[in-house]
Request: fold
Amino acid sequence: MERTDQAERTERFDGEFRFPSLLAEGQRAQRRLLDLLVPLEYDDRVLFGIKLAIEEALVNAIKHGNGLDASRFVHIRYRADRSQFWIEIEDEGEGFAPETVPDPTIPENIERPSGRGILLMRSFMTECTFVPPGNICRLFRVCD
Amino acid sequence: MADESRRRISVEQNGEVTVVRFADKRILDEQNIQVIGDQLFELVDIEGKQKILLDFESVEYLSSAALGKLITLNKKVKGIGGALKLSNIRPEIYEVFEITKLNKVFQIYDGFGDAMAAFAKA
Reply:
């Protein structure tokens, strides 16, 4: 009852923050975001997908976008309610063309150790888009 | 430094099979994954283990970086004429293997017993 009351009081929230491009900071950001989702009581499978997609997007921003440069920031903007989750993850890099990322599922790429993050984001989120020049990743998930 | 040296995997020898279980429920953290990878690779590179079973019973999340380490481990084991098998993967995580088509690369078994039986048949 208490949890339902809390969920009803926290029906919608939004916000933004930034953090320096360090993997540990990325982990903190991820925990902060996931803690916010608790009262929204998403289905386990939905939550699994959101967690995975956020992890992939944050690591991409930190490592590939900002080159692990702690002087560069990752900027987060988010909105969530019981029916949907939306997040923008922006790095301060030059961007990239997602269509140039090789397909990791074809035979010549299948045993590469990396290159699956975007595929997983697209698979587990309702929408995954990159705003040109490619340094903003938008993730959207229908949650009901 | 103390965190980096903490064992992220538990290793148990079951006959010829080296059974590995994971200390962490979420194999997501990049830094953690690097340490896990190193500890897994040691099994092959230093200890020469040829039959390795990774039991994922306690694992709730797995990121693409972790998949990369598994791919490298698989290559290493095959490189010394051995075999790597995976067991007890939760449906959500198995979906990750399916989406990435890595379910065709790895030998994945429902249960620990199935995987051990497969080693015995080989």
